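Reviewer comment 2.1 asked that we show a complete input and output for one of the modelled complexes. We chose the N-(5'-phosphopyridoxyl)-D-alanine case, as it is the one discussed in the main text.
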Amino acid sequence: MRTVYVNGEYLPEDAAKVSIFDRGFLMADGVYEVTSVLDGKLIDFDAHAVRLDRSLRELDMRAPMQRDELLAVHRELVARNDIAEGLVYLQITRGAPGDRDFVFPDPETTAPTVVLFTQNKPGLADSAAARTGMKVISIPDVRWGRRDIKTVQLLYPSMGKMMARKAGADDAWMIEDGFVTEGTSNNAYIVKGNKIVTRALSNDILHGITRAAVLRFAREAQMEVEERNFSIDEAYGADEAFVTSASAFVMPVVQIDDAVLGDGRPGRVAPRLREIYLEESRKAAI
Ligand code: PDD
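Response of the prediction step:
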């Protein structure tokens, strides 16, 4: 059984409880982070902590603990659960004011709820899916307008994943005004020639921590990167495509709707970027 963290305590997972009045439960009034673990160490912890602070600030929520304390909790959970490869999930909600009300509770009297747990994922780095590549379908992006805030409003992304499953695909890319925004839980990229194209940062997409690292590594490796909108039609004609996230790292995409990219196998760029990302991230892990 896992040991999880809830509001200052380390508990067996079945002893960890949150109130029915928690605003995360009633209103999806909460934010989260997912940090990967390789070799028992955290990947890009600082960047996740910075984004968490930003998400909290954008929603007028207070940070419940200092960064070093947050790091200590992450490390303690990784150690207690003996995680060599996996994920640490963190969620902070506006807490449980003891009733349901649209008005935010007074932060002086309602403390945020803080939950962390680990997910053990042996084989996360050496993944079979990375060798074959994924199929994605396109679906309309009907999410709210602040996708840059990492909130727990994940119903539509979850529905998108199920639409993909039903269609015999692995994931969905969301489309707004003809342009790809991102995957259900990852950032989306296409490759044409030597150029990597991905949507620029705005309120329309999550500012992926993996995205930032991968684009940095790509530029350092003299690859050409263009941050701009790309249409789903442009994606159909791409040589390669891929997604990035803390749980998928760099994952090749070999089919988008009915369009098979290249020869239907991962191309040159995505596997190379995955290799560089894993190598550099392992080196910098803490
Ligand atoms: N998802 N876009 C969306 C909508 C996401 O949910 C995520 C992450 C990303 C990639 O961000 P990052 O590189 O910081 O993981 C992009 C996490 C992994 C999840 O929900 O499980």
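Helices lie at 23-27, 45-58, 67-80, 128-132, 155-166, 209-220, 232-236, 269-284. We note this here for comparison with the apo prediction described in Section 3.2.
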